[in-house]
UniProtKB/TrEMBL annotation:
This is DUF433 domain-containing protein. Pfam families: DUF433. Coiled coil: none annotated. InterPro entries: DUF433, Homeodomain-like_sf, WH-like_DNA-bd_sf.
Amino acid sequence: MQIITSLSTEERLLLQERLNSMAIQVTPDVCGGQPRIRNSRIPVWTLVEFRQQGADDEELLRNYPGLTREDLTAAWTYYAQHQEELNNVLTAMNQEDNA
């Protein structure tokens, strides 16, 4: 703990960013290789889509009891950093649904 408290603000932010990034995994044979929440089969795009449809964090946590607030924060951060990529996935998924 003493090591963490001795970090500068910039170092702490970098550490937090690294920890958040570990919450998102990309594994070729899991969820079609799409970014997903750590050790689960919940793709980030699924959470983003539900959020775009009006679901708030509380509803997502109720519907996905294995998720934590930190998981959602990591998902929203990942989406913010990879918005174009995930929007392309959402568009493709919606086109498949409408075909």
